[in-house]
Write a structure and sequence with these properties.
4 copies of one chain form a homotetramer. By secondary structure, the first copy, chain A, is an alpha/beta fold. Helix content of chain A is 26%, strand content 25%. In chain A, helix 5 packs across helix 6.
Chain lengths: 351, 351, 351, 351
């Protein structure tokens, strides 16, 4: 088959590789119908994720069709159209039992799984992919849900909802500020209403993204390039700050924006992937009765979100800005890698 | 009356001052029967808390007898023996309605109250004290509960329980590590069993305090002066870290000990009062699915804890190491200020 | 002033009575600008609520303007436009501290308050009314929120949201069935989306009410007069039943409809006021892992709901079907009492 | 092998049957080392559970050693000493994902599993037993935990803790009344302290059981044969009733005792297995803000409880009153069936 293979920092190729094989009785082989590129894939290509070694097929998102199942698979059948979770998990270890699929302890060659696709094992940017622990890692798609609507449920929507909205303890009537209106920030914005947020404030430097934020659910948009952005946000509250501040960028400055915006008793939910440490002003914050949360998505809410997508209640497809043939994945990478100019949010590749 | 008056950094005196008067209809005047000194009082005396101005009577903990009530006080009567909460709160503002008494918005001369005793208004290290919003700030004591057993409920026990155990989300079966076995750390240790903690690990440099930790509920004591203290703690878990790590010191090093000890999915509860910022290693922590909490006690659990003290179910008096006459409060300050030698934890002054 | 006075079963009159007076320092006198009639008022008039004695002024809902305040009132001022909660509460007793305002222990002539207006003390169907514990029982209205939009927050909307949606543990993605589309049932339907309900199924015999249900948020409407109503509901689920079934009528048959509809692991939230016992089929239900909740509204969510109404996010005014002058309250009673013909839901009387 | 086979109402025999075989790749065969008899087994023998057909091997509790594993079993190995959960569950269906193992949807010959051992498939009162979905239904035992201490974790302790303590929402400081001090009631009493119950009141007619209740954690014991039993219980509270009332018998009278005892805002947790309907006095209860919960144990807390047993923190073995050879199981049935005279609580049979 053909696949997008990582060949060390800066190098990748869409090339012929051996077809994946069932290795464990809980495995499934999926023919990839639609996949996408994540910001993380760009980080890997820069060489920022040393655990990814040369020869690895990238990608951890996708929709496909089951072509082969291992003998211990009980809920998935050949021919099923399935959504691939970015997190593989056994469902039976002590972490899975707590809903911490991201920290699944099951042994898949290495110790512990979770996010392994396109990371520790071959991923979804290929014509076929092997999915371990398929009973707990794949989700059957209702017929009338198109690939395009389901695709963002592999990672982006569960990440925004679980790490932003749920960890942020959004509840009816609150004001939520989302710093960063990229794909994951937009997913936070699109799902904050599921817990009744009264005001959803999108904060970004890019007016294009702020426009999209409004379309998917933001009640207010504030450009953080303006001098008084903070006063604008605080003015939307009782003067004490927002109930929930969500960090969806991954740099120290935006993290500090969140701890600056949150009110006493509020929550800072970090969703961004960080590469450096940040300074936490405990001398001011210790007295504020706040929580700061962070983490990798578990995708435990994926079935629920899928139900809402099936009912047309989540704006999933709005985030797909560009479409490509799977064979043309290198063009897709170029478009996605140059988002400042192309305004790409999510690019979609289909066979 | 006589009172302990702050006269600027390093200066204090037990001296004659005017008796307190009812100022608002919700006020009560209490004759102080027993009071104590908090680590915060030492900080104030060093000049570290600029909001405390010269002439202020210190102290925010105490047990006493009501001598006069304002016309709007409905649940407290003259002659009642009462426990004074370190937090004064109106019970009616939007923050109080959320249980955030520490951030009460009621106006008491300044904007917002909460911790004001011995801070923004005169405190409890005196023969008498005025208590604002008495209906929500005083608690009637059952006859058979001695002052000594109730005294630590003004601040220490609610702080340990609310900020350590509840914010730390302790639940049945977990392993809790408490870094710092001073009065508040010991209060965490003594109350962690209320949510069924299976292992309670006290960590401190002082063997004397570790001994006391064992008496009040620690299942394991580890001296953080040993080279392998961290390995010792981790060995008590499944190898992945503790479920809850409680910071009860207030310096960057102990905060980082906590983020180092916590397992994926766990909680860091900061209880310590910090004077500087700390470095938060988000590059490692973002993926760990942890929460970090912090805050000033609300004392919302004070009535419940009082019930347990009344039943002899909390080791309240064990933390009182020294007793003085109220008139001898300057000796008490000397003993408490020199804890390294005197091994003082809580000193008690009674009339 | 003039007021609607109860004179024993079947008898009432809009007549001259003495003006209300401040009795306790925490009282406030409110000029009633707008009020309404509750189904409970009809029950009282039938003689079904013996605690209501002859001479009592009825009514527990209303919007008004403060004309006088007691000396201990701290958050309300003369001239304030206020919403009157149907529940009066002190905010300081052990029940209020738990958010159980409905069971407030404060002494207001009798032991315990909660719902006393138009019940144990004179109510809001009058030109003026005395409100006890005003700091915790009145809510200042933003200028731009009209009486009409606020009025249903006195009772109907908090009752639907707290007793139906919150007690029913509605959460994102669930299917909620609401049995009974009267005012309170409609309030459940209108607020179930605040916790992300995916399907909101209105069930009633009256097509008129089902139409209104659709307008305020029902995704499906099912007439319980059809033979297969139950199959229709179950067909909307995975076949195992609804996640949450809300009883909003108050008779045994509708309660049993709810226990029949709920799936394993689901919740039955009783909102209706019942006059007789019901048969609970524990022989079938014990194994179902369900909860059954019930209770009188606390109105703790009133400020949050008010915020949403102020933002135009709740369909509050849609339920007001008829408008009258306050002086014409007897006509209003006639219209409301004859709802089958008049299709009245909420009638509004304004000065 | 030998097994205890049900031969229709009133008939059973310890007789030779074929050894169990691996049927599905997720199965495991366990050699039974220790088992016990549950009250439910007696019900089955009376013919009260028609789903149990002639020829069925009874029993759903046990400790054993793994002798064979299916090809899809990943966490259990031959030779492992294991605890058998009374609930078999796949861990991957939508109900398992919610922690509702009792309502697992996996197909095991019939539709849906959960409690199937000794019910829909052959059980543990045998020399060997087949366990479906072993990865999620068996728990490896630490070496130093004897069979005797682990045995009650198959059913009794998780049932008491999950259905009584957790569903009852026990929390620090509350008063819990447990009606019925049989094995499950005693398990409630023994685990209520894990959420900090301040008062645990055992209520039973049998002084022998009340004595044992005291040993395992009851703070007060009240004989319900006394005329003023209810007043005795209420006197332990603020006069308004208990916070949590647990029904652990399974008849209408004891259920009504619980709704009579509970205070406004409290919880009734039904643990008993009921054979008839009960009358629920909604005309009094609707206004009480209570919840009533009920259900079959999920055993999701089994690993946590096992950890506590391993640390000697739960009084597991105290409930074992009689010990037999496995071969002598018919004597064990006699002793258990005649508990009034033998004072049997749990009888243990070991090979």
């Amino acid at each position: 088959m053909k696949a997008l293979v990582y060949h060390g920092p800066g190098k990748k190729a869409w090339e012929e590789v051996p077809d994946p094989q069932i290795q464990l009785p809980t495995d499934v082989i999926v023919r990839v119908d639609t996949t996408t590129i994540c910001g993380t894939d760009l980080h890997i290509l820069k060489g920022d994720v040393p655990a990814v070694t040369e020869g690895r097929i990238l990608g951890h998102e996708g929709v496909g069709t089951v072509t082969e199942i291992g003998p211990a698979v009980s809920t998935i059948e050949v021919g099923d159209r399935v959504l691939i979770s970015c997190i593989c998990s056994c469902g039976s270890c002590s972490y899975c039992h707590q809903g911490l699929y991201a920290h699944c302890l099951a042994d898949e060659g290495a110790s512990g799984i979770g996010w392994i696709l396109g990371h520790l094992i071959d991923g979804t940017q290929a014509e076929m992919v092997r999915i371990p622990f398929a009973d707990n890692s794949l989700y059957r798609l209702p017929e009338h849900v198109p690939d395009e609507a389901a695709l963002l449920l592999s990672d982006i929507f569960p990440t925004g909802f679980e790490m932003g909205v749920q960890y942020g303890q959004v509840k009816p009537g609150v004001t939520v500020a989302v710093v960063g209106a990229g794909p994951v920030g937009l997913a936070v914005i699109a799902t904050a209403g599921l817990y009744g947020a009264a005001q959803i404030v999108a904060i970004d430097l890019d007016e294009n993204r702020l426009d999209l934020a409004k379309q998917v659910g933001a009640t207010h948009c504030i450009n953080s390039g303006t001098a008084d952005w903070k006063q604008q946000v605080i003015a939307l509250t009782d003067g004490y700050g927002v109930d929930v501040a969500v960090e969806a960028v991954g740099v120290p400055a935006t993290f500090t924006m969140c701890t600056d915006l949150v009110r006493p008793g509020g929550h800072v939910a970090n969703v961004g992937v960080h590469g450096t440490s940040v300074q936490l002003d405990l001398q001011n914050l210790w007295i504020q009765n706040i929580t700061i949360s962070m983490g990798l998505v578990n995708t435990t809410t994926l079935p629920m979100l899928l139900k809402l997508v099936a009912q047309g209640k989540l704006p999933a497809t709005e985030l797909v800005t560009h479409r490509f043939e799977l064979d043309d994945i290198t063009s897709a990478y170029e478009t996605f890698g140059n988002a400042a100019e192309t305004h790409a949010l999510k690019v979609m590749m289909s066979r």
